[in-house]
Amino acid sequence: AVEIFSELLEKDPNNQRGWVLKGHSLFFMGNLFDSEECYIMAIRLNPKISSVAVHERLGTVYMKRQAYKDAKTVFYKASAEFYTATSWRNLGIALLKLSELNEAEDALNQSNILDNLNAETWGYVAELCLVNGQRNQQALQSIREAFKLNLSNPEVLDEIG
After folding, report:
1. Tens-digit pLDDT profile for residues 84-139
2. In whole angstroms, how far apart are CA 71 and each of 1, 52, 60, 138?
3. Residues with Cβ < 8 Å from 157, sequence gap 6 or more?
4. Which long-range contacts (CB under 8 A, 24 or more apart) does 34-39 make?
5. For 45, which DSSP code?
6. Which ranges of the chain does DSSP label H, i.e. alpha helix?
7. Sign of the dihedral through C-alpha 46, 51, 52, 53
8. pLDDT of 48 over the 90 cut
């Protein structure tokens, strides 16, 4: 698929959809660097791109690279434009990694309002409470909720210890 999109983009380098689809193909192949370049090119061609997936995946690339400030920027934009539980959760995680705890809590709470059945969100709420140090009871309640919802993400489990 990547080769097909590359050929298409050689003929029409302003084909935003081609850049998006090539980016998705590369993303799913684990090629984060090249997928990032494709997503950025697609956004440059149309800054008002109406694809939540482009923003989510670009932000995910930044998170995996531990470029949390860049991830924060992308997820802020995604949260404002698309208003999804996933965008808000990812924004909260980026803010948590940047130790912007009040903003992280707001974002995670917004995610929970939109989808209170997401085990990962509850896991990150627990981590936030533990990092805060003063909210052990709330952390315990959040951990219980996460496990009740079958939290299985090893990253989240490692974070909450």
Report:
1. 999 999 999 999 999 999 999 999 999 999 999 999 999 999 999 999 878 899 99
2. 27, 14, 7, 27
3. 123, 151
4. 35/61, 36/61, 36/62
5. H
6. 2-11, 16-29, 32-45, 52-64, 68-82, 85-97, 101-114, 119-132, 136-148, 154-160
7. negative
8. no
CA 129 to the chain's CA centroid: 20
Q: Report residue 27 CA to chain centroid gap.
A: 13
Asked whether the CA dihedral 126, 154, 55, 83 is positive or negative, the reply is negative
Average pLDDT, integer, range 14-25: 95
How many Å apart are CA 23 and CA 29, to the nearest integer?
A: 10
Looking at residue 161, what is its pLDDT? Answer: 80
Output the pLDDT for position 132. 80
Report the alpha-carbon distance of residue 136 to residue 51 in Å, rounded: 39
| Tokens 């860049």 -> residue | 70
CA distance 71 to 104: 13
CB atoms under 10 Å from CB of 84, counted, come to 17
Fill in the amino acid letter for 65. Answer: R
- Per the document, the length of the chain is 161
Q: Are 77 and 46 in contact (CB under 8 A)?
A: no
Looking at residue 22, what DSSP letter applies? H
